[in-house]
Amino acid sequence: MSEQQELQPVFSIEKIYVKDLSLEIPNAPAIFLEQEQPEIDMQLASEGRQLEDGFFEVSLTVTVTAKLPEKTMFLCEVAQAGIFQIQNIPAEDVDPILGVACPNILFPYARETVSSLVARAGFPPVLLSPINFEALYMQQRAQAEAATA
Fold this sequence. Notes:
The chain has about 150 residues and is an alpha+beta fold. The protein is built from three helices and four strands. The longest helix is centred in the last third of the chain and has 30 residues, at about 90-120. The chain is elongated.
């Protein structure tokens, strides 16, 4: 292999998997008799860490809570993770890849897992709206800079 080929930027998906999964229905079975539409709340968290040289794990945790005024219908949490190979990319570009590109890849998998899990629990599927991870990343960066200033 030539030296030029060895220095080509590499970004590849090595593995995508469910790292953690939980579903709680604290008010079952009575909650299934409720006719009201629940309020759905979604929380996101993403973290990346280096496994070894050139390999990173990124985990996207999606927490969905369905609540009625007085009761929780369900709480679903999915940690969708992936192992990514990132090599020959400038160090300042690795953080945005871990914070934007990787969560963009993982989100459709997490979205399907949440929808399927909620439906299997006996509730109508929850269809999560697309997320702008670039805007979230920029917001987190701005907050971090403000905190250190």
